[in-house]
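Q: Got a minute? One more chain.
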Amino acid sequence: MPSSEELAKQADAASKAIRDEAAAANADGTAPALDSAEMTSYANALRGFSIMVPKSWTADEAAGDDNGQVFNDAQSKATLTAGWIENREDADLTAAVKELEDVGEGMTGSYVNENEYRAAGTISEGSKTAQRILRKPDGTMIKAALTYPADSAETLDPLAAQILDSLTLQ
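A: Always. Here it is, folded:
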């Protein structure tokens, strides 16, 4: 099994390639919300996933465990949570999707395919979220959620998409 450091290096390289491809594909030539040099990779070797996080964000060690990690940005008041969920017989996936859909009219979500669900929108007065759920081949799930103040949406919506797009199964 590769070490966390090896997984992080592989994830950094893969995410950079994805972002470079996405930037090249933009018709208006715009760059990603944050340059790859300003991102670092969080890799969870035990649960088999990685995600890119802005270097300036700090890990909340008290909130993290073997299943995942929470990152905070003091400047924007954004929080990123990335972690593993057991998902017995898809009950947890169904519950997670229902919870997101029940938040209210401000949330929209859909299955990208049978193993991926994405949702985004307003979750409460003044707060937005963007979430991505990936089902692994063993049925377990990896969920990443970025929550941030709605008044920062213009800046953080593109960053949220960039971060969630970087979520990779190992």
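A: The first helix runs from residue 4 to 25.
Q: Perfect, thanks.
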